[in-house]
Design brief:
Blueprint lengths: L2 H7 L3 H13 L4 H7 L4 H14 L2 H7 L5 H14 L2 H15 L2 H9 L3 H8 L7 H20 L2
């Protein structure tokens, strides 16, 4: 067992997550995180948390193909925090192709990642216009609420 895995395994959940995010920011932990990526599902799940600190979008994209549904699900949630726009678009295509995942699109939209949203929705078939109309309506409502709070 690696020292990092041994350390975080003893921590309460919130501290464990914070420690992995901090490890992701620490270049000295990179080798140990690389080794954890080859470990069991728990270790790989921890690695995805480290991506919030390292902003390692490539690692997040790899995790989207993990055998564990928990790791894949966490990787989907990490896309917005760790991936650049090109990587986020790749993740969106994968998520949409697998399960028509609107959640990632919504999270990207919430973080004002409009370049990805625009690229993702460009060229959608005409039967997708209802979804696109709903997204636009939601954006307009959010803008209106934001303007009212100013």
């Amino acid at each position: 067992m690696s020292a990092l895995l041994d350390e975080v395994s003893r921590l309460p959940y919130g501290e464990r997550i914070a420690r992995m995010v901090a490890a992701g920011k620490d270049p000295r932990a990179a080798t140990e995180i690389d080794a954890l990526e080859k470990g069991d599902a728990f270790a790989r799940w921890l690695v995805v948390w480290s991506c919030h600190g390292s902003k390692d979008g490539r690692r997040v994209l790899r995790a989207l193909h993990d055998a564990s549904a928990l790791v894949r699900g966490l990787a989907l949630r990490a896309v917005v925090a760790a991936c650049d726009d090109v990587q986020a678009f790749d993740a969106f295509q994968l998520a949409w192709g697998m399960r028509r995942d609107k959640n990632l699109l919504a999270r990207l939209r919430e973080e004002d990642r409009f370049a990805v949203v625009d690229r993702a929705t460009h060229g959608w078939p005409s039967e997708s216009t209802d979804l696109l109309a709903a997204l636009i309506d939601d954006w307009l409502q959010r803008i209106e609420k934001a303007e009212q709070s100013i």
